[in-house]
Amino acid sequence: MGGFPVLIEQVITFVIVLLVTVVVVTVGFVAAAILRRKRRDAFFEQLDDLRQQVAPLVTGVLGRTLDYRQGVAQIKKLGEKHKPALIEQLVMEKLPPADQMPAMTQLCEDLGLVKQWQTRLGGDGQVRGMSGTLQRLFRVGYLARARSAEHLATIRHRASWPMLVKALDDPHPDVREVALRGLGSLVEPQSFAALVQRLHQVILDPDESGLAFRTVKSAVVSFPLSQAIGLEASLRHPHRRIRFLCTDVVREMVEKAAEGHPDFYLDASNFAPSLSELFLNTQTYDENPDVRARSAPVIAYMRDPRAVPVLLGLLEDPEWFVRLHTVRALAKPRFEGQLLQIAARLADPRWMVREAAVRTLLGFGDAGFSVLYDYFLGSEDRYSREQIADEWQRAGVIPTLLGHYAQQPHGRERQVLEQLAHMGKTSYLVGLLLGSSDVALRKNFLQDFGRHADRQIQSWVAWLATHETDPDVKALAQARKGEAGMGTRSR
Amino acid sequence: MDIIEAWRQGFIHMMNIFNIIIVAYFFLANGGYTVLMGFSLGSLLVYNRRLAYQGLEELRDSVVTPPVTIIMPAFNEENSIVDSLRSVMQTDYPYLEIVVVDDGSSDETLNNLIAAFGLIKMDLIYRPRLETEPIRGFYVNPDFPNLLVISKENGGKFDALNVGINGCRTPYFCTLDADCILERDALLRLMRPIKRDPLNIVASGGIVRILNGCKVKEGQVVAVELPESKIEKFQVVEYLRSFLFGRTGWDLLRGTLIVSGAFAVFHRETVIEAGGFNEQTVSEDMELIVRLHRWAQENSRRIKMQFISDPVCWTEAPADRKMLARQRRRWQLGLCQTLWKNSDMLFSRKFGRVGWLAYPFNLYVEALGAPVEFIGYLMIPLALLLGVVPPYLFLLFVVLSLAYGTFLSVGSVLMEELTYRRYPRYRDLLVLLGYAFIENIGYRQLVVWYRVQGVWRFITGFREWEAVAHKGAGD
Question: Is A24 on the interface with B (CB under 8 A)?
Fold first, then answer.
């Protein structure tokens, strides 16, 4: 290359060296890929063979269809012939049902796996072989520690909780995270305080802990509600964010306890009285609106007679999201007496509160419907009516409405339909009418709304005028066609 | 005679300069790729081990797992939309909503959806936080309360995505192309780092793999196989290279500039604050990622964008040259548009690694690389003819160039083999290795030509979004 500031011979030498290197490495890559595939295939073959021997033993031992000692001895014997990691993998690959978990824990102890995991988690044990050498070389020893913590948690080895608490200070965040998860699954009461301490740490200094708040919260809320008393000091903490997030943790614990139990109440049997007092007297009036917002769902479960007045107060909170959480919290049959106060939130300036109010009222069944009908017909607030119409459609209420109208064409449902037509919310209605086989319904609707100017209703009338099979309805449709806008009684 | 000689000398001088540029590009690009490959290999091997304790079960059961909305923009996807949606509805995620946005399709996309899912048109409230084209209608079936189909006037993919964001109520949303099939646990895997990372992860992208050739049953890939045609097989190797070591490497260097919009999760409020997807480029996904970097810098926000390699989304790759050309031209055009729009990032200290590493690499290697390589294909033989380059050096350089390309492609196949091994048949591995070898003769040049066309379209101000037709990947 003329003008190039190096000798051509040097360039050629460099290119040749590079070329040879590249070719050698490429060939090496090909060989490595093929070799790897062959080794993995052989490994899986071996694993499958061993699985056929180990799996029945494990199932038999756990299901007590096989003598425990004999089963353990046979598994150990297989472990002597093969790599211990294979036995570990096979024992852990399929978890037994919850009732067999104690037997599983015992099996892992007797096979020496628990001791091995504890040793590794403590950082004392070393993984043998090539894998261990590579782990030490590339400083990835945390992989073994994290995996050991995971195994101890998976088999619910309760006695290992102090090790998991200690692992919360591990230099690697992976180990800390797995330890947290493990503590969340062991739910050992004595470890709760350590978790609360971590909770404070991630709130105050997330960078220092290297853990996400969600991870810690997830572990804390796994604990039974009886442990919530351990958060009392946090709920009174001067730091507003700690108060907020710990209130939210209690809320999660309460909602988890209430899940699947429609008659769930908080009382002295499941919730410390001091906590109840704290929520009713302090959290509700906290200067941090997030605390007030997260208190509402907790208070909504209290049997205490002061709960309802407190909640009604929160319904009027100046912060919209406090009102939002409160309206949502009131979506329980026990608050049927507060329907009117909930309905008042239909006029809330924030649409999310209005939406929550409609949803809450819909949850009360006929009583809620009635309140919504009244509001829908009586209110001049366009936004509230829009919101109600929106939720009625989403919740599939329109077919019920139309069904009631078919039975009582002169009832309140007719006014509601008229209002919907006036608002142009007719797509769903017309869609249902098009698919309906009820001749009387079509006739009634045609008589009442056939002249309505709404475009979709007029399309439906035009369709009926051509396709309707009932001669009376067809004749009526033909008469109504073209009379759009005449004689509608819109609001 | 003197004038001719002077012209000849001038031409040779110019050729020399070009040759130096080409050689510099060669070493810069391949050196960069080699470094990325090295980083990625280590990172993937460790990550693969970390998957052993990932805790997906805990994530599935946890009350703190954030709700997600999958947004599927669809334009003339009548062949694939129903299967794709069925696949998405099987997604294993505890709090999931799905918004399908029909971007004014002229085919049966909307009608197929209505028929398949018993949807009913409803007049719902639309509260746009991002400006979009008008809405034609909302379609809901109360029996599928987590599914919402929105029909709108045609406005392009970015606009459809913005409509989806407007219709989304969850803190995170996941963009998913309508021709894609999501593995059941892909979203759970994609959300895992978002739950566990103390930093605010605002964008997280998963791996996109090629669906062509795979067996699909009931909306799920049940057997992973290589496609039949050569052009599709080449793309399998290409995708492995792009995702396994390109994206992984940049993620490790904290220089993620591209998260494939075909399958990515975003933090809704952050995206809205940054202005949503926009029409200024034809690669709305890359443009958004770059804009998020800028937004974070300008607003002093500590955010993270990342790529993870285990959540899998299967996509239909172009099966013929015409469609491949359209796709690659669009990608290249979008890349150029995005880089041009954000040219102040180049070597900007305030953008850190993005300004000093990711942006220059994308500019010099990915964007300008195509025309440089193309000119190289013309110039080097010309230089040989004119006697500027000795024939043996020319040959050596050609062989080196091919060998290096092969080395990178084989490297990506090896990485796949060391980590995920998604092609279980031994024969498939050999075929992949074979295609990694021959990819650099013919296919690579073809793609370079399409990319050059993309660059040319950028220079000439072409802005059209070239659509790629999909055949659908039903059972």
Answer: no
